[in-house]
Design brief:
The protein has helices at residues 7-18, 33-49, 66-77, 91-101, 117-120, 145-150, 157-164, 192-206, and strands spanning 22-26, 29-32, 57-61, 81-84, 105-112, 115-116, 131-136, 143-144, 172-177, 187-191. By secondary structure, the chain is α/β, with parallel strands linked by helices.
Length: 207
């Protein structure tokens, strides 16, 4: 069987192939491939409930967490574009990427390495940013991750299936910004099929 050419199709394929094997381990949290697939769908429902549509940009500014993964693949399931932010960025640097990408939502944390990321943005003008969601921690005006997921309960899974059917290999899944060492950071567009092809080629070469 050929490898699926979109992220949601790849996750579904992995769930049917590997089932109860552990896909993600984050401290005491272990998610099997089936559980990861279910979490992907729930996150996709929440994004639809938030009004996110194909082509909309959503940013993640957080360390490596299992919530990060679920957020990313849930967003990409409905054709949203992920904008990852380096946790070392300062407020103005992150704001530049948020503004340039037109991100409608930001997922972040408080307390990582003693940094409260929402506080770094309090003096920044981000007219496109509509919602702030915290994977972990508390901040005034921010929605908690579990509440965000629960907001999708009123969205039918059939709506996720319909949105996923509109996502193809040539659709953009990530907008990755360069480091900006010689100028302002520039957004690099990466497609579903393109990214999967890279890993497929790497796997064949390395094993």
């Amino acid at each position: 069987m050929s490898v699926p050419r979109t992220v949601p199709a790849l996750i579904r394929h992995a769930a049917s192939t590997f089932g109860a094997q552990v896909a993600v381990q984050d401290g005491d949290i272990a998610l099997t491939y089936k559980e990861l697939d279910a979490a992907r769908v729930q996150a996709a429902r929440a994004f639809l409930a938030a009004g996110i549509q194909k082509g909309d940009r959503v940013a993640v500014w957080a360390p490596n967490l299992y919530e990060w993964i679920i957020c990313a693949i849930g967003l990409q399931t409905i054709g949203g574009i992920l904008v990852p932010l380096n946790t070392r960025l300062k407020g103005a640097e992150a704001a530049y990427i948020l503004e340039r990408s037109g991100a409608r939502m930001l997922f972040t944390v408080t307390g990582f390495l003693g940094i409260n990321y929402p506080d770094l943005l309090k003096d920044q003008k981000l007219p496109a940013l509509e919602k702030l969601v915290l994977f972990r921690g508390e901040h005034a005006g921010a929605q908690r991750w579990h509440d965000f997921l629960a907001s999708g309960n009123g969205v039918a899974e059939a709506d996720v299936v319909k949105a996923e059917a509109q996502v193809g290999p040539d659709d953009i899944m990530d907008l990755l910004f360069t480091s900006g060492t010689t100028g302002k950071p520039k957004g690099v567009m990466c497609a579903h099929g393109q990214n999967i092809q890279v890993f497929e080629t790497w796997d064949k070469a390395v094993g």
